[in-house]
Amino acid sequence: MSKLVENLKHFRLVTFDITDTLLRFRTDPALQYAKVASEFGYPNVDPSRLAQNFRVNFREMAEKYPVLGYHHPEEIGGWYNWWHQLVIRTFETSNARIPSKDLDRIAGHLIKAFETSECWERISSADHLVGDIKSAGKTVGVITNSDPRVRTVVKNLQLPEFDFVLCSFDIGHQKPSRKIFDRALEVAGDGIKASESLHVGNTPLLDYVGAREAGWSGVLITNQSDKWMDHSDHIDSTKVYSTLKEFHEALKDQKMKL
Length: 258
Description:
alpha/beta; 13 helices
């Protein structure tokens, strides 16, 4: 623990991404979509088509109505309706041939299910790492490109209590925008500066580069070198760890320069 304290001595704030950093999907979301459709009486929906069409429709929705529809309240009506539309489009473009009444029910069920351990699980070391950092006296938060359900997810998955959970839909800006990192400093309070802040996440551009360009320090958690080597000019390889557990053990056992 003494090395962890020493390694983090320059920081007053440590924040984490959620998806594939602290938590991950229990199964592929497309399989979850197909499972729920089957439970509603439609067992022959192809998960591979759902996966492909989810990606296509997600990109289209994100381009037309960014930040989960935050900037288009009259057209979308909020994050719930954004996801509701996405789920329905995913099934429709996958030729699921499900009546609209049942599609509405399936979409509502899925949106609720993705708040729970039915769809999520903790990544190894997540709770211990967050707990150790909190015990070291640091302010610990979450910065995620997500909607307010993430607070329920964090509670349901029994992660240690964070000082704050900031999602992109709260403010209409998402990583890698500096605005969401600046807002995190405001929410953290106590005059914490960017130079005293560390963000840990799994996405090279959104998490590591975004944090660095906002004046923060960054740590990247990924075992997929092809995803960060494209940004290698902006990423210090000594700040890249294959797993959250590896990062946690390094904090506890090695002298680090973060």
